[in-house]
Design a protein that fits this description.
The complex is a heterodimer of chains A (418) and B (319). Chain A has 17 helices and 15 strands. Chain A has 418 residues and is an alpha/beta fold. The longest helix of chain A is centred in the N-terminal third of the chain and has 19 residues, at 2-20. The termini of chain A are far apart. The two termini of chain B are 35 Å apart. Chain B contains 13 helices and 2 strands. Chain B is flat, with a radius of gyration of 27 Å. Chain B has a two-stranded antiparallel sheet. Classes of the chains: A alpha/beta (418), B mainly alpha (319).
Chain lengths: 418, 319
């Protein structure tokens, strides 16, 4: 009996080892923070792609966490500051400078050199994600802005073609208002998109919010260069004109992106500078979105549009190689064609003739925020718009104030060139 | 015979008692105190971990340079952060907005709460149902209430604007939250709507505890309804009113979420209060030292208020 008991004990002790079979390393788990809408087709396609990646790479598991864009920035900043960052995350290009300053972005240059698909990305996309010769992020998707317009509303106002210049934009919008009773154009006055539209207009008028100086730091130079101040003033004057000539609804001075998108999708106004994600509104509003067409944005002195390069941020940590593997899988042609067919950063994925190509054709004229810690600059830009649109202040005075405010913010974050 | 001093927990023994017995008796309360300490210790640790340590951290950071995104920023700042906060062009407007928001909110909440409590103290059919329903605004989460009110007030598709235009009150929809002249007062009114039920139930509880005999006696003495209100009702409501007002001043002054959900401090900073400014310092300018300095100033102001309330209560009790 005693021998039997001893045998039983020995078997019990050996059982876990026997059951486990040959030793296998624990899979690496990557934490991936995303901001997709789980109900949208692109999210479903991305989830399917991740499952495919896990099957092909059994040593890597991907744990996705969905966080709305509104909350993502603060969560990322606090997680990064607390040393609890995900391995990879979606984000906006406006945060690029902050994360670079924090020193949390992995240097991807060496990996990129050995990546055969690097050449498939638009060159200026890669350039915008490179700081001091080091690739600091990969592109996730592009949010280029074009002029979206309700063709039927333009036709009802007797207008044959969408506007090509700022003057035409104001005149066309006023004509639409007069003929149809609906505003011709829509803008955003608050939230993240307001500075994006503002910087587009500044770019179209040949002026930047901050220039890189020889010392490697940045500075707003409007106060030192009268012609730049004049051009910035011209942009604010355009906003003032749009309001005073009734080209935009007065309440759009306080619109956020939801108001702009929803009112356009409902056919409440005729034209907007917007992205290809508006295609997703066709299913929700098939009747009012039926006549939407796409054209290049009206130009000021030059053609330009907002170059929203939504980055995939890869953070320093133990799993950079595995993270790179995941990121480049997500950027492969097949996955991009399924997930972001109309707004891929790859030049070999151009999308459909209405919601893809007209947008990606604008890549060469895309302008982005400089890679600085933006700090209070977006808020200052929003305030400048409000001072013109809500308070009716003189554009020249507001432009001069904005120049000072931008430099003040740069000084606070230690980036001002003096 | 032994007498116990309830305030100190010590026991005084009569001189004729034996020394050993007296010593044992002296030991008894200290054992009791030890037991009390043992029971209180977990709470003390919890309070220290969740309140005292973070609070000390805020005070410490307020005296140092600290950035959320730049580890190189550091060092003792002395009072520099406080000076920078006080010199900031946004500080005085934010302080003014905080005072307006707090005073109007608490006054409006108290007035609405008192009126509804008096109404609900009267016997009428369906009173129990109304008493239950009136609490609804208070139990709706702030974020949901804020988003819903923002939709109701929206100039493009808001129901309230549509009604006001249909009734002829407005010629055209008005952007209540989008105009700097009306945004703060609009947010304040929504806050009053949300918070007054708490006053209602608290004051109603106090009202029901007032003996009916007092009203009957006063009525027999010829006191009218207004006089009875001022002579009997209000004095009985004073203790609960004082507590309600003080805690709501604190809750309202430090409220962040309602304003953030509805206006994010805009338009043109018209609804920017001190908590919003603290958030901006920390999460938009990443200056933790500045944020902590302003938080410390706010905390000191709230502590002063609490102290004044405690002194008032003590003075009243002394009378």
């Amino acid at each position: 009996m005693a021998i039997f008991r001893r045998q039983l004990l020995a078997m019990a002790a050996l059982f876990p080892l026997l059951a486990a079979g040959p030793a296998r390393a624990e899979p690496t788990t990557l934490t991936y923070w995303v901001a997709w809408d789980p109900l949208q087709a692109e999210a479903k396609a991305a989830q399917a792609a991740i499952a495919e990646f896990e099957t092909a790479n059994p040593d890597i598991k991907v744990k996705t966490q969905v966080i709305a864009y509104d909350a993502l920035h603060d969560k990322l900043v606090t997680a990064l500051a607390g040393g609890d960052a995900p391995d990879i995350a979606w984000g906006l290009s406006e945060w690029f400078g902050e994360f670079n300053k924090m020193g949390v972005l992995a240097d991807l240059s060496a990996h990129a050199k050995a990546w055969p698909d690097l050449g498939a990305l638009y060159p200026n996309v890669v350039r915008n994600l490179t700081i001091d010769g080091k690739l600091r992020a990969l592109p996730n998707y592009l949010g280029l802005r074009a002029l979206l317009y309700h063709a039927d509303m333009l036709k009802a106002a007797g207008i044959e073609a969408p506007p090509k210049t700022w003057d035409e934009l104001v005149q066309t919008s006023a004509a639409i208002q007069a003929k149809t009773g609906k505003p011709g154009f829509g803008i955003v006055g608050k939230g993240a998109r307001a500075p994006q539209e503002f910087i587009t207009c500044l770019g179209q008028n040949g002026v930047e919010i901050a220039k890189r100086m020889p010392d490697g730091k940045y500075r707003n130079t409007w106060a030192e260069a009268p012609e730049e101040l004049e051009r910035a003033t011209g942009v604010l004057a355009l906003y003032g004109r749009l309001l005073s000539e009734k080209a935009i609804p007065p309440q759009s001075a306080n619109w956020g992106w939801e108001d702009e998108d929803t009112n356009f999708a409902l056919g409440q106004y005729a034209m907007v500078m917007n992205g290809s994600w508006m295609k997703g509104r066709i299913d929700q509003h098939p009747v009012t979105m039926r006549d939407v067409a796409v054209a290049p944005p009206p130009a000021g002195r030059t053609a330009a549009t907002f170059f929203e390069i939504a980055p995939l941020y890869l953070f320093n940590g133990k799993h950079v190689d595995a993270t790179w593997k995941l990121a480049t899988f997500l950027l492969s042609r097949d996955v991009q064609a399924k997930v972001f067919p109309d707004r891929s950063p790859r030049s070999d994925v151009t999308g459909d003739p209405v919601w893809g190509k007209p947008f990606t054709d604008l890549v060469p004229v895309g302008i982005a925020f400089p890679p600085i810690v933006l700090g209070s600059i977006p808020r200052d830009m929003e305030t400048a718009l409000g001072r013109v649109l809500l308070k009716g202040e003189k554009p020249a005075a507001v432009a001069a104030w904005l120049a000072q405010a931008i430099n003040k913010s740069l000084k606070r974050s230690g980036q001002l060139s003096e | 015979m032994t007498t116990m001093d309830m305030a100190t927990g010590s026991i005084a023994s009569r001189p004729q008692a034996g020394i050993g017995r007296a010593a044992r008796r002296v030991l008894w309360p200290s054992a009791r105190v030890r037991a009390a300490c043992a029971f209180l210790a977990p709470v003390a640790v919890l309070v220290a971990a969740l309140i005292a340590v973070p609070l000390a951290g805020v005070l410490w950071q307020s005296l140092h340079h600290a950035s959320l995104i730049d580890a190189a920023v550091g060092g003792f700042a002395g009072l520099d952060n406080f000076r920078m906060v006080l010199d900031d062009e946004h500080f005085v407007p934010a302080l003014t907005h905080t005072l307006v928001w707090t005073v109007l909110s608490v006054a409006g909440e108290y007035a609405c709460g008192l009126a509804t409590a008096l109404a609900l103290a009267q016997p009428f059919r369906g009173r129990a149902l109304v008493r239950g329903l009136i609490i609804l605004p208070w139990v709706i989460p702030i974020a949901i209430a804020g988003v819903n009110w923002a939709w109701l007030l929206n100039p493009d598709y808001g129901v309230l604007n549509a009604w006001l235009v249909r009734m002829g009150v407005l010629a055209a929809p008005f952007d209540w939250l989008g105009r700097s002249e009306t945004a703060l007062i609009t947010v304040t009114l929504v806050n009053v709507w949300r918070s007054f039920p708490f006053y209602t139930i608290s004051l109603l509880a106090a009202l029901t505890s007032i003996p009916d005999d007092l009203y009957e006696a006063a009525a027999l003495d010829g006191a009218g309804i207004v006089r009875r209100f001022f002579v009997i009702t209000l004095p009985h409501l004073r203790p609960v009113s004082l507590t309600l007002i003080v805690i709501h001043i604190i809750w309202t002054a430090i409220n962040f979420d309602f304003i953030w959900v509805m206006t994010q401090g805009g338009p043109l900073d018209a609804t920017e209060t001190l908590p919003i400014l603290i958030y901006r310092y920390a999460m938009q300018e990443f200056d933790v030292g500045l944020a902590c300095a302003l938080a410390t100033l706010s905390m000191a102001a709230m502590a002063m208020l609490f102290l004044v309330q405690a002194l008032l209560v003590r003075a009243r009790e002394a009378r």
